Every structure is written in C-alpha cells, then in structure tokens.
Amino acid sequence: MLNKNIIENVLYAALSTGGDFAEIFVEDKYITNMKMVGGLLENSISGRDYGVGIRIFNGFNSVYAYTNDSSEENLMKVAKEAALAINLEKKDIILNLMKSDIKNNNKVIVLPKSVEKSKKIEIMKRGHFGAKNYDESISQVTVSYLDEEQNVLIANSEGLLAEDQRVRTRLAIQSVATKRGEMQIGYSAPGASMGFEFYDNINAEEHGKEASRIAKTMINADLCPSGKMPVVIHNGFGGVLFHEACGHGLEATSVAKETSVFSDKLNKKVASPVVTAIDDGTIPNEWGTTNIDDEGIPTKKNLLIENGILKGYLVDKLNGRRMNYEPTGSSRRQSYKLPPTSRMNNTYIAEGKSTFEEIVSNTESGLFAKKLGGGSVNPATGDFNFAVMEGYLIENGKITKPVRGATLIGNGSEVLEKIDMVGNNLKLSQGMCGSVSGLVPVNVGQPTIRVKSLTVGGRKGDE
User: Fold this and answer.
1) Which residues of the chain have pLDDT under 70?
2) Residue boundaries of the structural domains of the chain
3) Cα(58)–Cα(358) distance, rounded to whole angstroms?
4) H-helix or E-strand containing 31?
C-alpha cells in the first residue's frame, strides 16, 4: 500500500521536532450500502475510501493529521506540519521496520466486491418477503444491506509494520406493526466478519419473519406495569446493557482520565461473584473480530471481571502510557480520519451454571426482557435507561403475557452487584458502537441473567 522507504521517510519527518513516537495508518476501504423500503430499492451506494493518518506522541500528548493524498511529497508535508505542534530537541532514532506475522482469525471465501449487485438485492428481497408477509399488521419493512472490505497498513517508529484485511457483511431488517394508530418495531440484524458466503449460513426470510414476530407481539401486548422487580434479561442482545452501562467504563479512554466508576478498582470487587466478563477480539469470523487492532497489535481475549473481581481494562497505546499499562490489542477507529483509542470488540458475560428454565422458574414474579432496544447511558456515572423491545411478565415462575412500553432504569455498577443468576446459554449479537474514535462494529452478548431488583418504567395506568 505504501513503499517501505516512503514509510520510513515520513516517520523520520514526523519525529523531526522531538516527538518520541510516530505512527502511520493507511486505509483502503471498499463499501456497498443499500436500503430497501417497501420492497423497492431506495438507495445504493458503492465506493472506495482511501487515506493516511499520521500520529505523533510527546509523552502523554498526541498530534494527529490525515490526508487522502498518499504521494511522498504530500505525506512528508503533512508529517512536518503535524510535527510543528511539538517543539523539542530532535532525538536520534534509527528505524528498523520488521513486517509482522499475523494470525488470521477470519477466513474469507468470497469477497463481496466480486459478487454482482443483483445477488445482493435478491437477499434483501427475501428478507422483505419474510417480514411483510408474516402478518397483516405489518405496515412497513425496511431492509438494509452492508458489505465492506477494509485493507490497512500500520507502521510505527518502534519498528512495527503490519497489514490486515477486514471483510464484513450484514443484513438488517426492521418491521413496523400498526394498530389503532400506534406503532411497534421489531428488528433482526445478523452480521459477521465473513465474505458473501455468510448468506449460506443464514436465512434472510427467517430473519424477516423474526423482526415481524417481535413487532406483531408487541403491538398486541398490554402496557407494562412499573416499579422495582426482578428482571430476567435474555441472552444475545441483552448484553447491550453490560456493553453500554459497564463496558465503556472499562475502556482506558475514560479510566486514564479517572472519569470512570471503575478507575482505581483493579483487583477489587465490582460485581456479583457469579459474574465473569470478557472482551475477545479473536473469536473466528465474529462481527467484532479483527486480527490486529488499529495500532497493529494482535487482538486477544481480555479478562475484564472474574467472579466479581475487576481483573483488567481495555487499553490503547497512548492511554497505556498514562496508566503505566501495556496495550491490550483494543485500539480501534472508524477510519483514517480519526485517531484510535481503546474500544470493545466482542464483549460478553461468560456462561454460568443455571439453565434458562431454572432462572425463570426461580423467579416468582417480574419482567422477562427478551430483547433490549435503544437507550442512553452516562459513562461517568453508569446511570442508564434502556427500552425493552420485547418483554413479558413472569408470574408464578412462568413467562406469561407480553408487555410493551417497558424501560429498564438503573446504574451499571449497581446492576453488576445485583446479578444473582447466570445461565449456560451464551449468545452473541451484532451492533455498532459509537465513541470518540467513531463507529466500530462490535458484538454484545451474554447468557440469560437475572437481576434480583431493577427499576422498571412502565405505562400501565397512563391510559
């Protein structure tokens, strides 16, 4: 992607004013993004995004610049201009770039850009058909298709030279059910770090039906009561609660600044003894998996919480300096236009010993949150508010009638302490995570868990 001699010259230029570390990130991305509404293709965007980011460290401070002109003349100019932010005595540095051997976690068989667009549209039509024909209450179906191939080169003044290819494919189906002027939404969005062979493993029509099943169930549901009660949160997308309310607090982005509730709590109890939490960037072909992070460091399985005890953080190179902590292969960014920082990959609560049936039968009354929707979180305090996309009452140890309008309200660190049962049915679900380094693909996940007491906001009695 860039000649080795050019890389070395640019790194020398970046360090010409006394910086102590320099890095080049080269990105070449091909992307296809399509949207279908009402069975008709509404928009289709295919393109290529290419650019180079240059980052310089001086102690705990950094300078970042980027360009989409990768000529040596321009890269030297950008590096020197960025270096002007640092005004120290130039250090003697000898570069010896050694290309890294990288383990491939994501086997790709068919590159999406080699597949005709008509075949991709056919997948979307199948999803639409399954969703729209599920029930007469379904008033609108939106299908989105995404594939991307991101090729990166990362080199730095410590001698690292690494290249990686990231290929991802995803189908998202949203169904809207309407009844007496009210609307309810259902959603299903499978994705993986795979090529077009991904569609040999999933059934687009079935995912369409699933989105519509949720919408239909909720449009016919009673309003949810409010109050404090036990809440059973199902596997898969239920893990978004841990991701948002707790996971971001374990990223060095906030820990290093001591704005996280988990700062200075390493090796201390932060959760119930039944809780073990992990972030793993190496699970083969999973949506949040990469071979290396965006600083060129191999991803790995990071133990965050073990039996309630905080064991680690997710750390990037710059915040690692501030924390005196080694990077954990967790540095990510949306594109070359943004500097990287610590982010999650595939984050989940590990399996426990209880079965799903045991968790439900041991809950006399409460709420079963089968699927969570959107929400808001204050990362500094961990206070959260999550909508329940699909919920049911638990009565006499059994899941009974569906309820709509439920909201989970609480605090992330407090909820960790209140988890008293963890199931043995781990499942991962796909999403996009936003932070200071942009949107990145992540998996959230967990087995079924029970929170012994949680505030549920409901609308019963409002009508």
Assistant:
1) 460-463
2) 4-219, 222-457
3) 55
4) strand 21-37
- Euclidean distance between CA atoms 162 and 207, whole angstroms: 37
Q: Which amino acid is at 9?
A: N
Rounded CA gap, 346 and 191, in Å?
Answer: 13
Q: How far apart (Å, rounded) are the C-alpha atoms in residues 400 and 392?
A: 6
Element (H, E) at 217: helix 204-219
Q: Is the pTM of this model over 0.90?
A: yes
Measure the CA–CA gap between 70 and 76, rounded to whole angstroms.
Answer: 10
The residue among 110, 14, 429, 99 whose CA lies nearest residue 292 is 99
Question: Out of 3.30.2290.10, 3.40.190.10, 3.40.50.300, 3.50.50.60, which CATH number does the structure's domain 4-219 have?
Answer: 3.30.2290.10
pLDDT given for residue 219 in this prediction: 97
Position 461 scores a pLDDT of 54
Residue type, 155: A
Residue 45: φ, ψ to 5°: -125, 125
Long-range contacts of 112-115 (CB under 8 A, 24+ apart): 112/32, 112/147, 112/148, 112/149, 112/167, 112/169, 112/195, 112/196, 113/30, 113/32, 113/147, 113/149, 114/196, 115/196
Q: Which of 331, 443, 352, 246 is nearest to 25 (CA)?
A: 331
Alpha-carbon distances, residue 429 vs 62, 69, 187, 188, 269 (angstroms): 34, 37, 12, 10, 27
Cβ–Cβ < 8 Å for 238, 450? no
